[in-house]
Write a structure and sequence with these properties.
By secondary structure, this protein is α/β, with parallel strands linked by helices. It folds into two domains: 6-168, NAD(P)-binding Rossmann-like Domain (Rossmann fold, 3-Layer(aba) Sandwich), CATH 3.40.50; 179-270, ProC C-terminal domain-like (ProC C-terminal domain-like fold, Orthogonal Bundle), CATH 1.10.3730. Helix content is 56%, strand content 14%. The protein contains twelve helices and eight strands. The protein has an eight-stranded mixed β-sheet with strand order 3-2-1-4-5-6-7-8, sandwiched between helices. It starts with 5 loop residues before the first strand and ends with a helix. The relative contact order is 0.10.
Amino acid sequence: MNQHPLETGLVGGGNMGQALIAGLIRGGMEPAAIGIAEPDTARAAALRTQFPGLALRTAAELAAGARTLVLAVKPQVFPTLLPTLAGAVAGANPLVISVAAGISTAKMAEWLGAKTRIIRAMPNTPALIGAGIAGLFANGHATAADRETAERLLGAVGKTLWVRDEEQMHAVTATSGSGPAYVFLLIEAMTEAAEGLGLDRDRARQLSLATVAGAARLAAGSTEGPGELRARVTSPGGTTERAIAVFEEGRLRELVAKAMQAAAARSRELGG
């Protein structure tokens, strides 16, 4: 009998779990090879409707029957959930991938077993459209093959990059994990300001969205850094220079740094 009847098991069917399921299926994995543990029956039914053939299981069943076990629940759930999976993990020896903020591989190993192969991943919400990026860190028991598995799984919803020092995962969380919300806040602020200048809401939103999306695409495809690109737009004595001066006077850089430091500090708090 196959020790791992499921290729991938996801504990948690929220946004990230849903994004990963969609990405894996787009990449060619059969829905029947993917298991989901979701206590919300309505959400579980919706996932089964969206992805026909998806296997509905308990978390313990996934720990015992999946080659790769993805923990896609909130970090506050880990202290009660993971000890209940320790026996199954010890018996089936799945690769465990966590997408929760803050919880270290060492802490997870305390709950699941000292020799558990664990990889931490910090993806972000653009994974919902296949445009995410995930920072990855592997503990000492994870193999080269495990790293490849993690890259394939997270690569199904965007880009991946590895960090060597697990402490850097807090910086990853503060930068890309929480980062989409910073961009959404900027879009929200620009839209509101444009309305204040006389545009109707729809035009204000369209202009703000297209500007942020276009600027990000330009920066991603350019050999120049963001500072150089900004300077090229900022003509001496022009409108952009006047606006940038207001941002600098308001210490925007310091405010961003302070916000990201707060996010990193919260990541550490969540890790206990």
